[in-house]
């Protein structure tokens, strides 16, 4: 069933106090037979071997052996909650998406926040971007906005994704995280430094999940009922205000309370202090998008708010904790390709790659019928000719015909849905077009550095230099080269820090 907007009991137990539940009734085997005794196994004599005929014991062990599904290859550690989205301003001139069609309209949704690189058991306060994944259960099917808490990303070339993630994960030999791998990779792709400056500022260690903004990062295409496209960046601004941890606080918390952000989100919802975010659009016409001074389809670049101010759209509120973490959070499958009429991808090459990669990951992680899991299924049940597959746990469409077109009823498409949409012309020579770093790639990191106040600048210098200082000298030199292209003063401050430890660089 779709999540409901249930008001929480403000006196409910917190994450540290388990509620005392009522009696849950007779224990049974997986197949419903009553269990007489769960603790002593069936043995030959008091100290003898266990009998295979103790089905309940064997069933229980075998199920335990299969409890884990593969964790997400990235964004493995996360927390989620249910809530609703409400439209507060009219945006029907921009999109025909039904859930955005009317002021006051509410749509149930589910959100998952995460760190990116370390494993599912890792600390919530690591220096990383944070995932900001939203699922809107609309009447036209699910719309997923799979964003981050940073308005940009590490790279603008799809194939690099694997090679962006690997050097941040564990060294293949030592199984340790490696600053050498990290800074080697990113100095070879200086386009990543816009993202890295955010990551090494205090925004790289947000104070829990409630005090950070979320971004589509990519430019998306919106299409209105006349078929007219607009190109739009989505900004979800936290109503709780931005709050970050300083580096030493984050490190301390990683030891003291590794689940800090998960706990904070859970407890705040449980006590009725519901976090919310306001959605804004930055809107460009097609002509403006193709002629902007930066490539709006390059996810390493932002669009200036002075050029295109934020326009309010709505607000989402998280007001219900999951009842079961595995069923609702671990099995949640977000994908940028889960779109609804009125919202479409832009030509951003990274977004295009993501349209494939997520559903592919879900098929591996959760199996071919993951769309039928309650957390992933749309409000209006899916209706198509896809059938069977491992773990088909519904009635599999019963007796309905399973091919299209057919003469016996069955689901049929409706061409009028996209009737008004303007054709979109693209042409070009097939080729592998390189995107090497150019002067423009340094402009936005430079502006970002200069925008920070004195304390924030100092924190950035310290956080970054500390991490770089344990890499090999040739890598340190390359970091300084890239920083020099961003801002000479920035470079010299980092250099001064590094020289204290290593006068030879
Ligand atoms: C998770 C691929 C870029 C945000 C994932 C997953 C994959 C993936 C395979 C795991 C999905 C799963 O098992 O459920 C990629 C590729 C990218 C890319 C190939 C670039 C080509 C980005 C960008 C953002 C982003 C630019 C943000 C703007 C996320 C988030 C999750 C995620 C938030 C976790 C979703 C959740 O909470 O379940 N990504 N990613 N990714 N990615 Fe990406």
List the helices and strands and how they pair.
Blueprint: H1 55-65, E1 78-87, E2 106-115, E3 130-138, E4 141-148, H2 160-165, H3 179-188, H4 193-200, E5 214-215, E6 220-223, E7 229-238, H5 247-256, H6 260-270, E8 276-285, H7 286-291, E9 311-320, H8 325-330, E10 343-345, H9 349-366, H10 440-451, H11 454-468, H12 473-486, H13 488-501
Antiparallel strand pairs: 1-2, 1-9, 2-3, 3-4, 5-7, 6-7, 6-10, 7-8, 8-9
Helix pairs in contact: 3-12, 4-10, 11-13, 12-13
Protoporphyrin IX containing FE binds at residues 72-75, 78, 112, 114, 131-133, 146-148, 153, 158, 161, 217, 299, 332-334, 350, 353-354, 357-358, 361-362, 365.
Would you kindly provide a brief summary of this structure?
The protein is an alpha+beta fold and 505 residues long.
Which range does the strand content fall in? Answer: 15-25%
Sheet/helix structural class: alpha+beta
Helix content: 25-40%
Indicate the overall shape.
globular
Task: Output the radius of gyration.
Answer: 26 Å
Major sheet details? 10 strands, antiparallel
Report the bound ligands by name, code or SMILES: protoporphyrin IX containing FE
Region (Disordered): 1-32
InterPro entries: Catalase (IPR018028), Catalase_AS (IPR024708), Catalase_clade1/3 (IPR024711), Catalase_core (IPR011614), Catalase_haem_BS (IPR002226), Catalase_immune_responsive (IPR010582), Catalase_sf (IPR020835)
Domain Catalase core: 28-412
Catalytic activity: 2 H2O2 = O2 + 2 H2O
Structure, described:
It contains 13 helices and 10 strands. The model is unreliable at 1-8 (pLDDT under 50). Helix 3 (179-188) crosses helix 12 (473-486), helix 11 (454-468) crosses helix 13 and helix 12 (473-486) runs antiparallel to helix 13. A hairpin with a 2-residue loop joins strand 3 (130-138) and strand 4. Strands 1, 2, 3, 4, 5, 6, 7, 8, 9 and 10 form a 10-stranded antiparallel beta sheet that branches. The radius of gyration is 26 Å and the shape is globular. Helices cover 28% and strands 15% of the residues. By secondary structure, it is α+β, with helices and mostly antiparallel strands. The longest helix is centred in the last third of the chain and has 18 residues, at 349-366. The structure holds protoporphyrin IX containing FE (HEM). Protoporphyrin IX containing FE is lined by residues 72-75, 78, 112, 114, 131-133, 146-148, 153, 158, 161, 217, 299, 332-334, 350, 353-354, 357-358, 361-362, 365.
């Amino acid at each position: 069933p779709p999540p409901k907007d249930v008001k929480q009991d403000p006196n409910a137990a917190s994450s540290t106090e388990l509620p005392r539940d009522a009696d849950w009734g007779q224990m049974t085997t997986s197949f419903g037979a009553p269990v007489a005794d769960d603790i002593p196994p069936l043995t030959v004599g008091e100290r003898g071997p266990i009998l295979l005929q103790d089905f309940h014991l064997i069933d229980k062990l075998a199920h335990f052996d299969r409890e884990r599904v593969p964790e997400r290859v990235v964004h493995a550690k996360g927390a989620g909650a249910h809530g609703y989205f409400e439209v507060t301003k009219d945006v029907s001139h921009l999109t025909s998406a039904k859930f955005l069609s009317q002021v006051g309209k509410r749509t149930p949704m589910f959100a998952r926040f995460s760190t990116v690189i370390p494993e599912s058991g890792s600390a919530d306060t690591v220096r990383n971007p944070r995932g900001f994944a939203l699922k809107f259960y609309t009447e036209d099917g699910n719309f997923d906005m799979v964003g981050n808490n940073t308005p940009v990303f590490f790279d603008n070339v799809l194939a690099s994704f694997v090679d962006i993630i690997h050097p941040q994960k564990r060294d293949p030999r030592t199984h340790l995280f490696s600053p050498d791998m990290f800074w080697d990779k990113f100095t070879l792709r200086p386009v990543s430094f816009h993202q890295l400056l955010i990551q090494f500022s205090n925004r790289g260690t947000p104070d829990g999940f409630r005090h950070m903004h979320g971004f589509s990062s990519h430019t998306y295409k919106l299409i209105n009922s006349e078929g007219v496209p607009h190109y739009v960046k989505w900004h979800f601004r936290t109503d709780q205000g931005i709050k970050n941890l300083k580096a030493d606080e984050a490190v301390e918390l990683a030891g003291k309370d590794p689940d800090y952000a998960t706990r904070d989100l859970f407890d705040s919802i449980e006590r009725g202090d519901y976090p919310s975010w306001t959605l804004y659009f930055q809107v460009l016409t097609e002509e403006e998008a193709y002629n902007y001074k930066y490539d709006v389809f390059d996810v390493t670049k932002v669009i200036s708010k002075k050029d295109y101010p934020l326009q309010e759209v709505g607000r989402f509120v998280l007001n219900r904790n999951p009842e079961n973490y595995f069923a609702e959070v671990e099995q949640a499958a977000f994908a940028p390709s889960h779109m609804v009429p009125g919202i479409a991808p832009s030509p951003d090459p990274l977004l295009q790659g993501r349209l494939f990669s997520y559903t592919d990951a879900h098929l591996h992680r959760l199996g071919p019928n993951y769309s039928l899991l309650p957390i992933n299924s749309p409000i209006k049940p899916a209706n198509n000719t896809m059938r069977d597959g491992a773990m088909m746990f519904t009635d599999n469409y019963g007796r309905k015909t399973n091919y299209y077109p057919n003469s016996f009823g069955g689901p049929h498409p409706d061409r009028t849905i996209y009737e008004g949409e303007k054709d979109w012309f693209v042409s070009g020579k097939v080729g592998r077009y390189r995107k090497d770093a150019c002067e423009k790639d340094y402009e936005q990191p430079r502006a970002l550095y200069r925008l920070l106040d004195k304390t924030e600048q100092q924190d950035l210098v310290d956080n970054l230099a500390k991490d770089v200082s344990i890499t090999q000298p040739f890598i340190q030199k390359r970091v300084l080269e890239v920083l020099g292209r961003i801002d000479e003063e920035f470079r010299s401050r980092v250099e001064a820090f590094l020289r204290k430890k290593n006068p030879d660089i």
